[in-house]
Amino acid sequence: MRVCRNCGVAEDSHCLAVWLDVPDGCQCVASTWGDIIPPICDAHKGADAENCGTCEHDFDCHAKRP
Ligand SMILES: [Zn+2]
Ligand SMILES: [Zn+2]
Ligand SMILES: [Zn+2]
Predict the structure, then answer these.
(1) Residues with CB under 5 A from ligand 2 (ion)
(2) What's the gap in Å between 18 CA and the centre of ligand 1?
(3) What domain count does the chain have?
(4) What is the pLDDT of residues 16-60, one digit of tens each?
């Protein structure tokens, strides 16, 4: 059998890597997104604890933007 050089998991039980482009400053858990993460909008819309009404990113994603 073959094992992954990085994590030692056997080839047949190793997950296939799925790469996501994460926008700069995004603090979201990447696995909560689907295949595409939309860009972070300029201003968070809605309550701080809720995802943005415009771009669906967390409040923190907007706060950390330069
Ligand atoms: Zn691996
Ligand atoms: Zn985000
Ligand atoms: Zn937003």
Answers:
(1) 26, 28, 57, 61
(2) 12
(3) 1
(4) 888 899 999 999 998 899 989 999 999 999 999 999 999 999 999
